[in-house]
Amino acid sequence: MTTILEVQGLRKEYRKSSTWLDRLFKRNSASLYAVDEASFSLQAGETLGLVGESGCGKSTLSRTLMRLYEPTEGTIKFLGEDITAYDQKSLRSMRKNMQMVFQDPYSSLNPRMTVREMLAETIRFHGICQTESELNEYIDYLLVRVGLNANDKDKYPKAFSGGQRQRICIARAIAVKPKLLIADEPVSALDVSVQAHILNLLEDLKQEFNLSLIFISHDLSVVKYISDRVAVMYLGRIVEIGKTAEIFDQPGHPYTQALLSAVPRLDLEGTRQRITLDGDPPSPYEKHRGCPFYTRCPKRLSVCESVTPAMTQLGQTHHLRCHLITESS
Fold it and tell me: Is residue 5 within 8 Å of residue 78, measured between CB atoms?
């Protein structure tokens, strides 16, 4: 299977502006480590679910992959090329093959442009259609394909519901026929009744357009439904990554176990123990030598405080877990 995306040691650091007190006492300005040493790969046609609590760095990671945010360190190889060094001209070409659907459909669309104007702008920019008649036919096709009416193209965003707006955002993303689609919590702002329709639409489009998909969500049940593999983030780091069935049936990292214990389900095999995490997460403004989950981990070892845990492959399923946790279990 072809690797479409390979990320190695990706870091995104935000440096806090120094205050007059910092300058007076000659203190270095603090840095927030939003993404810290993230490494993973994505195969062609695969869906990778990215989960974790709010503020763990999921959205920052997705925008850094798109080069909307500049990475501090690390490499991003897309379609075999290192895009971390791309200039703006090269980025425009790259983004034809890597598109993104954002979380809030209400702020993702220009309220002063009609649906046709927004779609046509993207299509013209990337040279998808050659004539106006071809452009109009393509826009009609896109709207019908995402479950809207072709007559909707002359309406403004205010005329649509949240679910319909998200369909427009999806139509805009697939209009340039990308190879990779990054969906950053695309259903979290929608009613539950609408979420299933959007998820099924993404799954159908993935098959039709031969897309690879990175699906970001804090809803584990949604991630389980749509993903082939799952990556779990905590405080900017990927602490566990593996096949969806293994992550949900046999989670290896204590943080993953705690997340899954909070998911409501009908447990026919007895009462499932709810894992409560004590302690406070470490400050994201501090660079930690050891495991970021050490202060809250119920299975922590003394070595976890000072030694950064490695990610090791277990079995033939490319399931990765913290080797310190595995050895102690």
Answer: yes
| Residue pLDDT, tens place only, 133-172 | 999 999 999 999 999 999 999 999 999 998 999 999 999 9
Stretches where the chain sits below pLDDT 50 are 315-319, 329
Decide: residue 186, CB within 10 A, 0-12 exposed, 13-18 middle, 19+ buried. Answer: buried
Longest dimension (CA), the chain: 68
Residues sharing a CB contact under 8 Å with residue 216, sequence separation 6 or more, in sequence order: 49, 50, 51, 58, 59, 62, 182, 183, 184, 185
Q: By C-alpha distance, which of 55, 9, 66, 62 is closest to 32?
A: 55
Strands (E), the chain: 3-15, 31-43, 47-51, 73-78, 81-82, 98-101, 180-184, 212-216, 229-234, 237-243, 311-314, 319-322
How far is the CA of 28 from the CAs of 32, 144, 215, 283, 284, in angstroms?
13, 55, 37, 16, 16
Please tell me whether residue 190 adopts helix, strand or coil conformation. Answer: coil
Position 318 scores a pLDDT of 42
Alpha-carbon distance of 165 to 225, in angstroms, equals: 23
Q: Note the pLDDT of residue 329.
A: 47
